[in-house]
Amino acid sequence: MANGERVIPFSTKEEIREQQFKQVWLEELDDVFADVARYYDRANHVASLGLWNWFRNRFISTMDVQSGQRMLDVCAGTNAIGITLLKKHPDLQVHAIDRSKAMQAVGQESARKLGMDIDSTIGDVHSLPFPDNHFDIVTLQYASRHLRIMDVCCEIKRTLKPGGHFYHCDMLRPANKIVESSYYAYLRLCLNFTALLFRSSSSAHGCKEYFINALRMFYSADEFSDLLRDVGFEEVSSQTLLVGMIGHHRGMKPLDTSSPDGDHEQDQRTLCHEPRHDGGLQPARCERP
Ligand SMILES: C[S@@+](CC[C@H](N)C(=O)[O-])C[C@H]1O[C@@H](n2cnc3c(N)ncnc32)[C@H](O)[C@@H]1O
Fold it and tell me: How many whole angstroms from 168 Cα to the centroid of ligand 1?
């Protein structure tokens, strides 16, 4: 849907998503991924009917990556993106951030076995502990539905160098209603099957409906493109797989000439992340450049 036709502003939709899912995001997801870490990659192979690596390679093929660049994988999980990119560009400087120690432990072990070095940070991605204008590339795959994504996109933009690219991949809400309901039915089947197959913990069992509801409340591919433009990314483009079930987006941080002293980026960080009394963060108020 084009910007002018949108019924609810993104900031309002983000507040609704946060209200709806705050408890799961803050109190339950860490336990889920602590359990899921041991079988995350295998479960996704099963659920995707063997297409998991193909999906990732399609996403990677949308990226322009140069050797020696500095990249950050946000919500890196088991480091699948970093490892795949390092296989193609061994002198890439890869940083990973994720809140789950268990997911990163699996990812670090996989990288170590391949003789790769990935710099790992454990932390919440709503505030990225990296300087402004620091990365050439930032990636985010299969985690946006668990985040106040507009806030995180602001942070990603802050840490990207002007002209740097953000690459995003996630399961999206298909625009077609028939595809959408079939999708949820298939996901429900997969979640039940993999939970049984891998003997998921009670926390992972308890979150099965959350995963569907989070997708139901998420964005279509066109909406997500508009969200990226609202945050201030330029040259936004997207492609979808499986009739809109999976979306790949890319956006560029503008070559900003408006702040010769660099203060603009710091101001933007302040706008995006005002501390709240309950320990959370205010909704994003990213300024467009
Ligand atoms: C579905 S996994 C995706 C992992 C990886 N990006 C991939 O493509 O396989 C979601 C990841 O997001 C992480 N995550 C969720 N919310 C987070 C937050 N607020 N801060 C940091 N990591 C978070 C989880 O710990 C988990 O590792």
Answer: 13
Whether residue 285 lies inside any domain: the answer is no
CATH of residue 202: 3.40.50.150
> Does the residue 287 lie in any domain?
no
- The minimum-distance atom of ligand 1 relative to the CA of 37 is 27
* Domains in the chain, number: 1
Range of the domain at 172: 3-272
For residue 256, the CA-to-ligand 1 centroid distance in Å is 30
pTM score: 0.87
Cα torsion 261, 263, 265, 267 to 10°: value is -170
pLDDT, tens digit only, all 289 positions of the chain: 444 455 789 999 999 999 999 999 999 999 999 999 998 999 898 888 888 999 999 999 999 999 999 999 999 999 999 999 999 999 999 999 999 999 999 999 999 999 999 999 999 999 999 999 999 999 999 999 999 999 999 999 999 999 999 999 999 988 888 888 888 888 888 888 787 777 777 776 778 789 899 999 999 999 999 999 999 999 999 999 988 889 999 999 999 756 444 443 433 333 333 333 333 444 344 543 3
d(CA 33, CA 203): 9
> Does residue 189 fall inside a structural domain?
yes
Spell out which residues line ligand 1, taking CB within 6 angstroms.
Answer: 29, 33, 75-78, 80, 98-100, 103, 124-126, 141-143, 146-147
For residue 106, how far is its CA from the centre of ligand 1 (angstroms)? 13
Q: In sequence order, what are the residues at sequence separation of 6 or more whose Cβ sits closer than 8 angstroms to the Cβ of residue 46?
A: 190, 193, 194, 197
User: Both tokens of residue 61?
Assistant: 């093929």
Dist. CA 235 → ligand 1 center (Å) = 26
Assess if residue 278 is contained within a domain: no
